[in-house]
Every structure is written in structure tokens, then in C-alpha cells.
Amino acid sequence: MKKTFALGGVHPHDHKISAGAAIEDFPVLSRVYISMAQHLGSPSEPVVAKGDRVKVGQLIGKPTGFMSACIHSSVSGTVASIEPVADLAGNKVNTIIIDVEGDEWEPSIDRSQTIVREITATKEEILKRIADCGIVGLGGASFPTHIKLTPPPGKKADYLLINGAECEPYLTSDHRIMLEMPEQILIGARLMMKALDVKKCFFGVEENKPDAIASLRRFSSEYPEIEVVSLKKKYPQGGEKQLIDALIGRRVPAMGLPIDAGAVVQNCGTALAVYEAVQKNKPLFEGIVTITGDCTEQQRNFRLRVGTPFNKMLDAVGGLPEQAVKLISGGPMMGKAVANIEAASVKSTSALLVLTEEQTKRKPQTQCIRCGKCVQVCPMGLEPYLLNKLAKVSRMDELEANRVQDCIECGCCLYTCPAQLPLLDNIRVGKGQVIRILRSRPKK
Amino acid sequence: MRKLLVSPAPHIYSAENTRRIMMDVLIALAPSLLVSIYFFGFSAIQLVVVGALTCVGVEYVIQKYLLKTEVTISDLSAAVTGVLLALNLPPNSPWWLMLIGSIVAIGVAKMTFGGLGQNIFNPALVGRVFLLISFPVLMTDWTIPESWFRAGVDATTGATPLALVKEGLAQGLSVEEILANSLDLSYFQMLFVKTGGSVGEVSAFALLLGFAYLLFRRVIRPHIPVTIFLTIALFSGIFWLIDPNQYMDPLFNILTGGVLIGSIFMATDYVTSPMTARGMVIYGVGIGVITMLIRMFGSYPEGISFAILIMNSVVPLINKYIKPARFAKEVKNG
Q1: Contact A350, A272 (CB under 8 A)
Q2: Which residue in B5, B118, B120, B333 has the most chain A C-beta atoms within 10 A of its own C-beta, making it the best mutation to test that interface?
Q3: Is the Cβ pair B16, A359 closer than 8 Å?
Q4: Which of A23, A337, B31, B88 lies 20 to 30 A from B135 at CA?
Q5: Same domain for A235 and A92
């Protein structure tokens, strides 16, 4: 029996059309838009001014406060302007706009192909490099990595878990890096183990990527402390709590963090970024992005500079197809719909997905037939039908008693519902309100 | 610039819908339906057609002219109720009996509560029990299944196996003597060929085929039928071990008296059964226990219809208090 998480889950068709496409360098455009709010926490503050010349990898935004991150230029050129620019949802975010001239990298960055295997940095140096290079979680939440690798006082991690599940349909960027850069990822994992001072690392990959598993295992045999685990294909395997359950059989307590179960989870893309930061001195200014869709002319994987507008990304796969109605940054289950096609990519952009009306149009709602399928698929063991009903009438006390705050917003309930009820839409609203109430309560 | 659709995640949806689920239930009922057409011929066809048409018609009329709401007959739920009710009547029941049952099932048990998803009791069972109480003679007039090619119009009638045994026991006969008097009660006979009873339960094999289809299509989960079977087996098994001459064995109790059709198709009705796996187990045990209590100590020989209806009434309570297994085993303090 292959390992997987215990409760719920769904099996959407995986549509990994771009899995066979090797990573290509995306051409550097004439202008990039680098947002100062690319991470969870407070936005960064620009340290350059209009007219300044910058190099690739130069620090252009510094962190403001504890939960924040450094931001580096992804191109060389001149700062054209620093102004609020609409992000993918249309919200104005402070952005550094750079006109590109040439491609001149910071000389401190090691651009050679040699793999640096030896780990010489100390724990403190590793954490500092990660923070200085602006590494954030690339699994979606963009949580600053150096903070995640520094457990709060009194908490100790027993395991580092690397997330290579890539359970979202369509996405293949993690698949490609595990296939093409397995050794670098494993070294990144070892660096994080050293930073966390843990002795064991589990690397979870879903079984639908046998080539990636084989390629990782070819190198992991040298590192007995890292175990590559083939996981059963089930969404949302890549959810932090689900991955911890699948790999080490521990359950994160309600309202708790992975560290409360003795685990730290990092995405495999983050591991690669950590390798590049510590061993190659390369800040996080580019990432691997899948540009795909059943209706696009091509489906490809690119190494893309941060700040590339979505419409320019689409040009690389043949432009926006006639029948496309929805653009998604990320996967179809948890990604964000793009409202502003001129918005630019950020550090954690993993995919740009194009869907047709037939694929994404919600069908008319019908009556709830109380089939219980939403309860069956909920990976958190909640009752979405009930939470939906309670959220619609704002019954906060009952929502809390029925644990709406545990919802991970994976979308399994809405995906499954035979009556096409907007379960998660309503639950998300209820959850937000309940969490606000919980936070406002005095702590014991 | 083109207008893009913007909505919250998820952006893709499964192909499941109510109509497809109801269609699957009808497909699962098809083997039983074909067997009953083989045995009862036109009578079975007539019951099913009258049942389905009346149920759909009543729902249409109520939604269109009484409630003036959207008509939802195309979800096929009314058709399922009609077919299920037909399969739960004695063969050779008059068409008007079916008509009355269907009107009660949809008009009273379903629409008065607000239609699909709102009713507390299984509509088909309410229809059946209404008929059982109102027309006791007609509803226990069982035609002995015999291929209608051979039997023609002069079908013979008799009691169901359970009624046969109950009568025999009341007359002071032992189980062995009762079985000796009746060749129809061998397990092979009951499993593959015919069991005396309602239209739909002639062949246990056909019902189990439907069960397998529903499980395969993931329309239902096994919890409810399996717990009913196990509870009945355990309950009757204890008595059978104590005195095999006064009590029938567990397999006999499961194969007769509508336990199969009731557990597979009636007790698993989404609307009137619990939402969680734990709740389903409690519900199944309840149905099994009540069925056996009625069989052993009540006046009806079968009992599962009443057992399901009684447990239907407990479902809201089960849903309120029986929560699914939560992911988080503990809650973090502070």
C-alpha cells in the first residue's frame, strides 16, 4: 500500500500535458514589474530610486519588520518608475518598474553549471543567506523561508519534509526540476536539515511521476538521511497537514502549525532556491513556471524572471486562445483567477493555466440531496454542507463549534458537490469571520 | 481587451450531478426489473410504468401549478421513487394501487416537506407502508414467481418465505418440518432464481448485482447495507444457535423479507440517511435491530420497511450529534 493521508481527498484528472517539456529559459523582456508585496507579511521597501541602474540579483527591496523578505532585481537596466501597479486581482501594489538593458549579473553570483556538493556554511550562515537572498515558500503561500526554518522557542523539529507531491492538475514545474535538478534539490534539503538541526528528511512525491522519483533516488542513495517516498495520487496531498499525515503519520493540532507536530514542510522548489542561495550565492529572482491549458497551442515549462507580465507569458505558448475564458495563476484547485492580464509574475508564480468555458463554467445550482459526498471528501473531517448552511446565516458560534477554522480551503467539497453548490465560497466567508473573532479573544 | 472570468477557487468541477446519480440508481435496479419482467410479465411492466409516470406527473403538477416554482422532474428523483415503489409491491397488484401509492409517496412524503432533499421519510417507503396499512389484503397477496410464459394468466399466489415460517411456527411446527413442506426455500433457489415477495426481490442475485454497480460507481458507500446485514446476522444468529428448531438461520433472514432491496436501495436513500460514516453505522445497526424485533416479536413477518422509516426519523438527531472523524486530534491552546 502506497502512503497517503487518511481522510477525504478527490481524484481530479491530472492533465499533466506539459510533463514532457524540458525547462527552457524565457526570453528577458524589455520591461519588468517587480512587486514589493510578494510574500506573506509586510511589503518590502524599495532601496533604489527612479533612474538608478541595477544589475541582475541586486537588492532593490528591503524587508520591513519581522515577517517580510528581501527582493532582488531580476534584470539589469534602469529603474523607470516606482509606483502602485495593479496585481493579478487588480489591487494596487507598490512596484518597481525596470527598463531592461543587457543582462548583467551581480558578479558574486556563481553562474557555472558545477554542482557544489560540499556544505561549508554553518547553521547561522545558511539562515542568513536564505534571508538575504529573499527565499520564500514556493508552494503557494510565500511564507518567508528563514522564519519557517527558525522554530519558535521551545519548539523543535524532528523531521524536515520536502513537498514534491505536485497534486494540482496541470502543474509540472516541480516535476521538471525533480527530473532535471535532483541533486541540487537534495543538497538544498540537506542545507535546510542543517539549519533546522534535524537528522531525518522525508521527500514525498506522488506516484504519477515515476521518472522524478527514480531521478531523485539515484542521488538520494548517497544521503541515507533523506528518504524519497512514493505517495498515492490524491488531492490535496501537497497540503502541509495532509503531507505530514501521509509521510510521518502525525496530525497537526487544530489552530496549530506543522512545528506543533514536530515537522517543517518545504516545497521542492524552495529546496532548489535554498541550494542556489547558499551554494551559488543566487538570490530568488527567477523561478520555474508551467504555462499550459488544453486549449493553448503549446504547453511549456520556463525559467522565468520575476516581474514578467502574464500576457507576455501567454505569447510564448501561442497567445490567448479564442475559447479561453479564465486565466489562473497556479493550479485549477487552489490557484487564483487572473483579473488583470497585464499583472506580472511574482516569486511564487508556479503556473499560468488557461481554461475554456466548458472546463470552468459553473453549472446551475440544484437542491442539496444530502448525499454526504462533501463530508466524505473533506480532508479535514468537516461537514461542508453544514458549514455552508451556517455561514449563509452567519451563525458564528455554531460555525466555530463545527470547526470552520480548520478548513484548508482545498476545494474538494465544491469540486465534488453533485448539486454544484458554492460550498467553499460561503465557508471561506464564514471561516474569515470566525478567525477574526478568535484572534480578537484575549489569550489564556 | 477580452473579458476574463474571475471567480474563487476551485476552478474545475467533477462531472457528478443529481441526474447522473439517479440514472445510476435506475441502472442498478435494471437487473431486478428484468428478472421481475421475466417472472411476472406485463404486470411488472405495468406497475413500473404507472409508478414512474405518476410520481413524475405528481411532482410536475405540484411544482408547476401549486408551488409555482421551477420544475425539477428532469433530475429523475421522482422516477426513482416510482420505480422503487413498484418494485416493492406484490406482483399482480392492480394499477390503481400503484397510482394511490405514488400520489402518497410524492405528494405527501416528498413535496409537503419541500421536495428533493427536504423530506424526512423515504417517499417510496411511505407509499408502501400507506398501502400496507390501507389495503392489507392486497398488499400481502403474493404471486408465486413462476415464469409467466409457463404460468400464463393463472398465476398462483401464496405467502412469502418469512410469512410461511412465521405461520408454521405459530402452528407449533419446527423449522425442519416447515422447510420439508416447502421446496421453494433452498438457498440456491433464493439466491439465483426466485424468492417469494415483492416485484423487485425475486432474485437476490440481481439485487446484489445492483449493489455492486452502485458501489463501483461510488453512488453509495457500503456502510449502511453491510451494517444492516451484519446486525441481522448477529441478532438472528444468536437465537438460531440457541434453538435452530424455533428460529431461522442468519442467511435466511438476510435473503428474505425485503432485507436486500431495503438495505441496498431504500436505507441508502441520500436524503433520509445520515451524512457521516459513523452515523451510517448507527443507522444500519438500528435498522437491523428493529427489523429483527418486528420479525420475532411483532405481528408483521417482514419488518424492514418499518425499521427504515423509524430510523429515518432519528437521522436528523444522528446528523446533529454524530460528527465525522476530525483531522485534528487535539486543539492547540492559546
Answers
A1: no
A2: B5
A3: no
A4: B31
A5: no
